[in-house]
Design brief:
Length: 308
């Protein structure tokens, strides 16, 4: 499963070294993330929980962990990748601040990848290959339709409404994209010539779309459950990816190829669950074009939310 290699991939893409690279490549991305999160911290009404929860924390690359820790009684980091959270903790300058951290190793999706993997392993893939793309992607669609996505996921030890600030930063799309990539990895292993055919398979596309929506709704319900009534939730998500080969001109956007990452209904989903206090949108460049390779980036949306 892709989620099994999370620690390795995070070593490449997170932490202090990556943060320094972003300060040069995409400083506005770090500024937007930090500004929105710290605004939520400072706007908490008196009398609500002084504790902060960070879901999918990883190494806290875009999260102002030092300021959050100084401004809170306790900061809880939750992620399946314990090593990255430990890396984030080591960046705090004093033992007193590190004592305010609690690291909780947990799959914040509630085990979606594992649930899908069990279904995939039950299928007679070798017998399906002669049936071509129709048989393969019909079966993959059925697995997605049957896959349990706990709504909301139960995360042991967190309670309900226990946090004045709950943060989900750049993790939402991973919750459904990793399982979907597991399906394509399976196809790659049994019938690599069929990769790409999923784009023309209507039932699979419908099942994948419904799966994304279920996982998103479950995550929003999780945020609802964990944040205190008068507290704030911060949701930051990439919404669209793009590649480009022109940079630094007035017409950069004319040379981009874009790919949506979340359903167009995401803003509606958010407003079904929360009052939007603040909404910002920005670009996040991860790589510039070089040596024949395309540059990459994302369009990002950030919400500061409170309960309906």
């Amino acid at each position: 499963m892709r989620i099994d290699s999370l620690s390795y991939s995070n070593i490449q893409t997170q932490g202090a070294q990556r943060r320094e690279a972003l300060r040069s490549l995409s400083p506005q991305h770090l500024e937007h993330c930090s500004s929105l999160i710290l605004h939520g911290l400072r706007q908490r009404p008196p009398g609500i929980s002084p504790n902060v929860l960070i879901l999918g924390a990883g190494a806290c690359t875009e999260i102002p962990l030092l300021e959050l820790t100084r401004g809170s009684d306790e900061v809880v980091l939750v992620d399946l990748d314990l090593a990255s959270m430990q890396q984030a903790a080591r960046e705090l300058p004093t033992s007193a601040l590190r004592k305010r951290l609690l690291l909780l190793q947990s799959d914040i999706s509630g085990g979606v990848s594992t649930n899908l993997q069990r279904l995939l392993e039950k299928q007679p893939w070798d017998l399906l290959v002669p049936g071509g793309a129709q048989a393969i992607f019909d079966t993959a669609a059925e697995c997605l339709e049957q896959c349990l996505a706990p709504d909301p996921p139960e995360l042991e030890g967190l309670g309900t409404g226990a946090f004045g600030l709950v943060i989900s930063s750049l993790v939402l799309t991973q919750l459904f994209s990793y399982p979907l990539l597991d399906i394509l990895d399976r196809v790659q292993s049994i019938a690599p010539e069929l990769l790409g055919e999923q784009e023309r398979h209507r039932r699979y596309q419908q099942a994948a779309s419904a799966f994304r929506k279920r996982v998103i709704q479950a995550h929003l319900h999780l945020l609802q459950n964990l944040v205190e009534k008068e507290g704030f939730a911060i949701l930051i998500s990439d919404v669209r990816g793009f590649v480009f080969n022109v940079y630094g001109t007035d017409h950069d956007k004319e040379h981009r190829r874009t790919m949506p990452l979340v359903p167009r209904a995401l803003p509606d989903f958010v407003r079904e669950h929360f009052i939007v206090v603040r909404e910002n949108q920005w670009e996040w460049l991860t790589d510039l074009p070089a040596d024949g390779r395309l540059g990459r980036g994302y369009d990002v949306v950030g919400y500061m939310l409170t309960a309906l």
